[in-house]
Amino acid sequence: MHFLAPLLLAGTVLATAPIIIHLLNRRRFIRVDWAPMEYLKLTLKTNKRRLRIEQWLLLALRTLAVLALFLAVARPISSGTNLAGFLSVEGRASRVIVIDDSLSMSYQNSYQSAFERAKNATRQVLNQLGPQDSVSVVLASNPAQPLVRMAHLEESESNKLISRINELSSCQMGSHWISTFEDIDRQLQESTFPVKEVIIISDLWAAGWTVEVRDLFDRWSQEQVTVRFIDIGEEPAGNRVLHSLESESRIALVDQEFKLTAVIQNAGEEPLKSGQALLTVDGNVTPVTLPEIPADKTVNVPVSVRFDQAGQHVVTLSIPADKLLEDNTQRKIINVRQMVDVVLVDGEPGLNPFEGETDFLALALSAGNSNWQVTQAESSNWKSQLLTAPDLIVLANVDQLSKERVQELEELVSLGTGLMIFAGDQLDLELYNERLFKGGRGLLPAQIDKIRDLQTQGLVIEPIADSPIETLKSLTPELLSRVRPRRFADVSLDPGTDQQQVRVLARWNDAQQSPAVLEKRFGEGRVIFWTITADKSWSDWPAEASFVLAMRVAAQQIAADIQRGENLIAGEPINYELETVTVPQSGDLNWLDREASSLEITFGNIDETKTMLSSPAIRFSGVAEATWQTPQLGEQSQKFAINANVEDSLQKKLNEQALQQFLGRMPLKLIRYQGKEMDLSTDGTELWRYLAVLLLGCLISESMLATWIGRRR
Fold it and tell me: Within a 10 A sphere around the Cβ of 332, how many other Cβ atoms?
């Protein structure tokens, strides 16, 4: 036992006060013989023994009360248990040692990371276990592949295992304890000894702990499984997190600005002063100035890059380092394209320039811009042609579509192809609603009620985040007021429409605020419906400069994004679709920015023309490159960017009460790691509450006994 305030123990000397007072009171009386007292002696003699016992009890209660008072304020703590005593069990046991290797375990204090402390604790645990026990050692991120499985560790095997543990490093995956424990449960079912024990070595950060684990712990409690925790974590003290590096531009083109947004959180208690981040593009480093970030706030920082050639490019952003380095960097693979393939389907071709439905569109998308490859097709021919897979398809005043062509469009859009639909006099409204709207299940964002004549002045852009035409909000009201349709397609929105899937991007400036531009997300693709024509038959807008801007930004925002799974989060497997007929036999995945062994990748058929490249779950962050051989094209490669799972950056540590809630009926057995050396011990239990109860009991008992002794008898 030890005390948190040992100096206050000096007050226990006052416990002698009742004894001294008792002795002094005895000396105050002078014995005088008096004849009548002889008669009283006979009476007192019979009560003398009882009175003496009562007085001694009263004296003991008063002395104990003073002792309890000063012992309580000195805050005594019961002695802890050493590691050997903590791990002791009766009989031979099947033990599973779980080492937490999640992202939070790379949190660094002044001299070592939490994962280094976990490895130290694991070595000390293994040194305390005898060869008679069956031992499995697993990593929380990969419990299905133990370092050893149900082994009886002799000295040589134990040394080999410790050497292997010394070489381990934490991964950048997030914690998911229910999955880890379910895998451990399967291992316990295969264990040989009746005594079963799970030893969890973790920093006990709250991320990854969910209520689902309670049922499993309750069952383990019924099955007499013992669970012990070794807490190697420290109280976190602030952290900066680069949550994501999101693309604002849907496609990246050569020699055009590509916009990204970095989401940065300051989870510390102090403001993060403005500083510099490092933006790396294909190995070239450029500083980026960061604004000051207040405490416990998140800011969005715009970042823009340019690429001088097509192909895969690696973009990396790193913010200033802190105690948790792995969540300070985000990597992104960007596929840069030489041009965007656009097919304009003209429902009413003209004989002269700018008389066709798509002439103004073709000019808006291609004039002065070599990045757009525009193909104009007459609807009568396009309907019967084999449908290719361009990046964007525009239907301008196309009268009707067959069910088969609609189905083909749905497949393309669901895979990411963009689709724009313009209204016109030729539209068969009944068939459009039947085949394209489909009661809200089709490509069309809304049901077309009728074609309406109405003079309106101006276009009102809705304040919607991630709107394909958001750029038009920067135009002056005078420019937007010059958009004056004479006719437009009047639509009706179902009140139950999912606003995440269907959105009104702009409205006409009429009394009803009629929808002018609508958007629908369909699978991986997006559909925009313009309620006017693409030519000048319903408005003079195609002759305005704002029309060129509107068509370009809308087309670029909804055109097909060719990202196909190159960007992942640690813990996810690679599943990448290849355009090849012959399935490669083998390949490797090698790290480009970290020292780690290569990973095996596999290939499997999807259909006659496509192959899937797959890998196990990737546990580490970084940039990796897959390489393989094909008979037709020779050696092929593909880069992948894997980012840390920043959900594990949540800086909240479980206390004993919070941890017990997850354990259910399982009693909490916890030991805290105190340092690098063999110094594992429990903190013990503070006893002042028990002493306070004892003090209260003494005072109540003393009052009652004093009243009893002082009664008239």
Answer: 21
CATH number at 83-236+652-679: 3.40.50.410
Phi-psi region of 411 (alpha: psi -120 to 50; beta: other; left: phi over 0): alpha
Q: What is the dihedral of CA 504, 505, 510, 512, to 10 degrees?
A: 10
Map residue 694 onto helix, strand or coil: helix
Judge if 83-236+652-679 and 340-558 fold alike in CATH terms: yes
Q: What is the pLDDT of residue 680?
A: 40
CATH of domain 240-330: 2.60.40.10
pLDDT at 322: 86
Closest by CA position to 383, among listed 345, 437, 431 = 345
Q: Which residues pair with 504 in a beta bridge?
A: 518
- Spans in the chain with pLDDT lower than 70: 1-51, 75, 77-91, 110, 369-370, 496-500, 562-563, 581, 607-609, 675-688, 710-713
Q: How far lies 642's CA from each of 327, 600, 618, 623, 632, in Å?
A: 12, 16, 8, 6, 29
Distant-in-sequence contacts of 141-149, Cβ < 8 A, 24+ apart: 141/101, 141/102, 141/171, 141/173, 141/180, 141/571, 141/619, 142/619, 143/98, 143/179, 143/180, 143/183, 143/184, 143/187, 144/183, 146/187, 149/187
Segments in 491-577 forming alpha helices (H): 545-558
Fold assignment, 567-643:
Immunoglobulin-like (2.60.40)
The DSSP result for 533-549, as a single string, is: -SSSSS-SGGGSHHHHH
Each residue's pLDDT tens digit, 289-338: 888 888 889 999 999 999 999 999 999 999 988 888 899 999 999 999 88
Digit-coded pLDDT (tens) for 347-370: 999 888 888 999 999 999 887 766
| CATH architecture observed for domain 340-558 | 3-Layer(aba) Sandwich (3.40)
Could you give the angle at which helices 212-222 and 177-189 cross, rounded to 10 degrees? 20
- In three-state form (DSSP H/G/I as H, E/B as E, the rest C), the secondary structure along 191-258 is CCCCEEEEEEEECCECCCCCCHHHHHHHHHHHCCEEEEEEECCCCCCCCEEEEEEEECCCCEECCCCE
- Per the CB < 8 A criterion, the answer to whether 480 and 461 are in contact is yes
> Radius of gyration of the chain from Cα atoms?
39
In sequence order, what are the beta bridge partners of 242? Answer: 264
Residue written as tokens 């790290």? 591
Task: Determine how many CB atoms are found less than 10 A away from the CB of residue 560.
Answer: 24
Domain locations along the chain = 2-79+687-711, 83-236+652-679, 240-330, 340-558, 567-643
